[in-house]
UniProtKB/TrEMBL annotation:
Signal peptide (UniProt feature, chain positions): none
Protein name stated in the entry: Glycine-zipper-containing OmpA-like membrane domain-containing protein
Residue intervals passing through the bilayer: 6-27, 34-58, 78-99, 106-128, 134-154
Keywords per UniProt: Membrane, Transmembrane, Transmembrane helix
């Protein structure tokens, strides 16, 4: 009888430890995929849109001002040479500055929005996949070990008394 109860207790502890490790792995992998993909996509899209809009506005304004001033000065000098020396230089400088500012703002806003959306989507997908895999593996292993240890620390139920006939 004593040997039967010892064997029963050993079998119960082995089964409980196996079930605990299996549950830890299963719950860890499920939480890994769910939390990793959700957090990865959310953080990726947020960071991608923020970085995309910032980089888009900065690059758009820089490129817009550069292209606007270049085009404005070129058009101003062309008009200046066509219209004459004094009137041409005055109109050329005025038209150059006006066209430069107008073209700079227009090109800045257009390039900013285009570059912002493109960089936002690209950075969002890249950061989403990277954060997905990183957060997924980290959360999966951490939660798997935590759940395994928590479930393993739960004492097994008392074994039923052994009755012999």
């Amino acid at each position: 009888m004593a040997l039967d109860s010892v064997l029963t207790a050993m079998l119960e502890s082995v089964l409980v430890s196996v079930l605990v490790s299996v549950l830890g792995l299963v719950l860890g992998s499920v939480l890994d995929s769910v939390l990793g993909s959700v957090l990865g996509s959310v953080l990726g899209s947020v960071l991608g849109s923020v970085l995309g809009s910032v980089l888009g506005s900065v690059l758009g304004s820089v490129l817009g001002s550069v292209l606007g001033s270049v085009l404005g000065s070129v058009l101003g000098s062309v008009l200046g040479s066509v219209l004459g020396s004094v009137l041409g230089s005055v109109l050329g400088s005025v038209l150059g500055s006006v066209l430069g500012s107008v073209l700079g703002s227009v090109l800045g806003s257009v390039l900013g929005s285009v570059l912002g959306s493109v960089l936002g989507s690209v950075l969002g997908s890249v950061l989403g996949s990277v954060l997905d895999s990183v957060l997924g593996s980290v959360l999966g292993s951490v939660l798997g070990s935590v759940l395994g240890s928590v479930l393993g620390s739960v004492p097994p139920p008392p074994s039923a008394p052994y009755f012999s006939e």
